[in-house]
Design brief:
The structure holds two protein chains of two kinds. Chain A has 21 helices and 17 strands. By secondary structure, chain A is an alpha/beta fold. In chain A, the strands form three sheets. In chain A, strands 10, 11, 12, 13, 14, 15, 16 and 17 form an eight-stranded mixed β-sheet that branches. A seven-stranded mixed β-sheet of chain A has the order 1-2-3-4-5-7-9, sandwiched between helices. Chain A has a two-stranded parallel sheet with strand order 6-8. In chain A, a hairpin with a 2-residue loop joins strand 11 and strand 12 (318-325). Chain A is elongated, with a radius of gyration of 26 Å. Chain B is mainly beta. In chain B, a hairpin with a 2-residue loop joins strand 6 (71-77) and strand 7 (80-85). The longest helix of chain B is centred in the C-terminal third of the chain and has 11 residues, at 119-129. Chains A and B meet through helix 14 and helix 17 of A and strand 1, strand 2, helix 1 and strand 9 of B.
Chain lengths: 515, 130
């Protein structure tokens, strides 16, 4: 054969392999509002940047007549490419080929691109759309999952790992996304569960739809397994592109700087957003927007445990992670879910050299039987652990209430915040005035002729004396009390001056955080 | 053109939320917080399923006397046959399930009429100590 003939032969082979599961299967995929694996990759990556690996890999099934079947690419597309010029490794399971089921070679392709990402030190994106293990390949498909989980774990904190659920992801398969840093889900398309509705019905007699059991809404709001919720695949890809712009290639780098932009000060004015009355709610995201570049805040886990807000923004062009109590939801308390949510985010930022900005306004940890029994002690401890462990620049701004354990947990001076700033409205005290007055002046209140009146008076007295930033400032626990409008300037200065921060923690194999 | 943000958007319906005694805040409640289950103390005379599964065998009959530790029924779940026994002595008041029935978690299976505890013994104990 001449070179020309051989090239034609190659082209023929390629066009055979890229057809996936064939016209019918592709039509079915599209009718569900889903793109095919290759279309997804092309939609996400920069034009002409995708370079596919292992197109000609064939499956290794021998039993149940599998050896007579041809599964193009063994049901998964892998390769490298760029997103806004930012290099990444990617794989996308192809549901049109044997339901995207995971067999030995399918897993081999995934682990190969994972190893590649680790070697090249670039982020890994996995698009999941699979019926699960390929039963015909038996224990080999289990081995495949295990090899993926092991690599997810080793890659954790080394390269950013992003999971995109665009179809079913059931059984053991869910643990790869669970081990990665960010999980993206799309309404009515994504489904994640350990055991599906059918098994639940036959074994347990409980009826539930896939959507109610493990759809995007459930995982975004109830379980917290998903970090991003989108209405469509294209919205989901836009979210991924945005996320990638805030994070570095790997744990030895910083996120790429962007041109500095001023906040939209006409829209977001602290004076207008922040209420005078300490018991009035406000949306802390507006305060974040009043501080950050271009008032652009990219929120993570928006629907889950909304009493704490986490997400990325830029200040003076530099990517930062915001952690902020949200007075608008559950008064901004720390509870089981919000502690869990914040702690994981803090650890991500610390692992990937993203400075942390913490905005404090909370009445404390949430009391209650349900919270105590759900383990608010060990979950709450995660916040303390992750803030103490973090060595990235840590800047804390106390806006209003900072009481008790909540004060300590929200990146206080004692957990080694580098800069603790307080607004004049800050109330830093061992506990809220109501509780404190009841304890300190108990006998006075009890013995009074009019206990309610005395209680009110004592609460007021306590408030005036202790509900301010100056007691803490007198001990040096607050570094500066600042005018709210000066917050951005102070944070920019803090970021600039700590750009070479180099703080060491004792050497150890690893800590034992209260998982 | 977007409206400037203030702290009192009229569209938001806030509720009062008492975090601890006297400390009430105007705020929104989450679906999860609303749907949380109230805690009830455990009643040892009410035998419930600790796991969803299938009833494989019922050992007792209505009105039967049982001692604490006596087998009541077998609940199969996750390929295991679990023996459920009485936590207190008494009589069987009502059996709510049949062999072969599929039960969900925390479903009431058997109600017992618990025997009044033998307080005399305790009193004796106290007397002895004195």
């Amino acid at each position: 054969m001449s070179l020309r003939q051989k090239t034609l032969d190659l082209k023929k082979r390629m066009s055979g392999a890229v057809q996936g599961g064939g016209v019918k299967a592709i039509e079915k995929q599209l009718s569900m509002g889903k793109l095919t694996a290759r279309e997804r990759i092309l939609a996400l990556l920069d034009p002409n940047s995708f370079h596919e690996y292992d197109l000609f890999v064939e499956h290794a099934g021998k039993d149940f007549d599998m050896d007579k079947k041809y599964l193009p690419g063994d049901g998964v597309v892998t390769g490298t490419g760029t997103i806004n010029g930012y290099p990444i490794c990617i794989y996308a399971q192809d549901f049109t080929v044997a339901g995207g089921s995971l067999g030995y070679m399918h897993a081999k392709k995934i682990t190969k691109i994972m190893d590649h990402a680790m070697k090249l030190k670039v982020p890994l994106i996995g698009i999941n759309d699979s019926g699960g293990a390929r039963i015909q390949e038996g224990v080999n498909s289990l081995a495949g999952y295990g090899e993926i989980f092991f690599r997810n774990t080793l890659a954790s904190g080394v390269i950013p790992q992003i999971s995109v659920i665009l179809g079913p992801c059931a059984g053991g398969a869910v643990y790869s996304p669970a081990l990665t840093d960010f999980v993206f889900m799309v309404d009515k398309i994504s489904k994640m569960f350990i055991t599906g509705p059918e098994v639940i019905k036959t074994v347990l007699g409980e009826e539930i739809s896939m959507e109610d059991l493990g759809g995007a809404a459930v995982h975004s709001e109830i379980t917290g397994n998903a970090h991003f919720f989108a209405e469509s695949e294209s919205e989901c890809f836009e979210q991924i592109k945005q996320l990638v712009s805030y994070i570095p290639w790997n744990n030895t780098k910083k996120a790429e700087p962007f041109p500095v932009k001023q906040p939209k000060s006409k829209l977001y004015k602290i004076e207008d957003i922040f209420p005078n009355d300490a018991k009035q709610p406000y949306d802390v995201r507006h305060i974040i927007k009043a501080i950050c570049d271009d008032s652009e805040f990219f929120e993570v886990q928006e629907r889950f445990a909304a009493n704490i807000v986490i997400g990325f923004a830029r200040i003076s062009g530099q990517s930062v992670g915001f952690v902020a109590n949200q007075p608008m939801v559950l008064a901004g308390v720390l509870d089981v879910d919000s502690s869990d949510k914040a702690a994981r985010f803090i650890r991500f930022c610390d692992a990937f050299n993203i400075p942390l900005v913490t905005l404090v306004d909370l009445p404390g940890y949430l009391p209650g039987i349900d919270q105590e029994h759900a383990g608010v002690i060990r979950h709450g401890a995660k916040v303390l652990y992750s803030y103490s462990e973090a060595t990235v620049p840590k800047i804390t701004v106390i806006l209003r209430k900072a009481y008790g354990g909540g004060y300590i947990a929200m990146c206080s001076n004692h957990l080694r915040a580098d800069f603790v700033l307080a607004w004049p409205t800050a109330e830093i005290a061992v506990m809220g005035p109501e509780g404190a007055a009841n304890i300190i002046f108990r006998s006075e209140i009890m013995e009074a002729e009019n206990p309610d009146e005395v209680r009110k008076k004592k609460i007021q007295e306590y408030k005036e004396k202790f509900a301010n930033p100056y007691v803490a400032a007198a001990y040096g626990y607050v570094d500066a009390v600042i005018e709210p409008e000066e917050t951005r300037r102070f944070i920019i200065h803090a970021l600039d001056i700590s750009s070479q921060k180099d703080e060491k923690r004792p050497e150890k194999k690893h800590g034992v955080p209260p998982f | 053109m977007e409206e400037p943000k203030t702290n009192t958007p009229e569209s938001v319906k806030y509720e009062m939320f008492e975090v601890y005694e006297g400390a009430k805040f105007k705020t929104l409640l989450t679906r999860k917080h609303r749907e949380r289950k109230a805690w009830t103390p455990e009643n040892p005379a009410m035998v419930t399923s600790f796991i969803p599964g299938t009833i494989r065998k019922v050992f007792v009959k209505d009105g039967q006397k049982v001692k604490a530790g006596d087998k009541l029924l077998i609940l199969e779940a996750m390929k295991m046959l679990n023996e459920l026994s009485a936590a207190v002595s008494g009589t069987v008041k009502t059996i709510h399930v049949k062999t072969g029935q599929v039960v969900s978690k925390n479903q009431l299976l058997v109600e017992l009429n618990a025997e009044a505890e033998k307080k005399d013994n305790k009193k004796d104990g106290k007397k002895k100590k004195k």
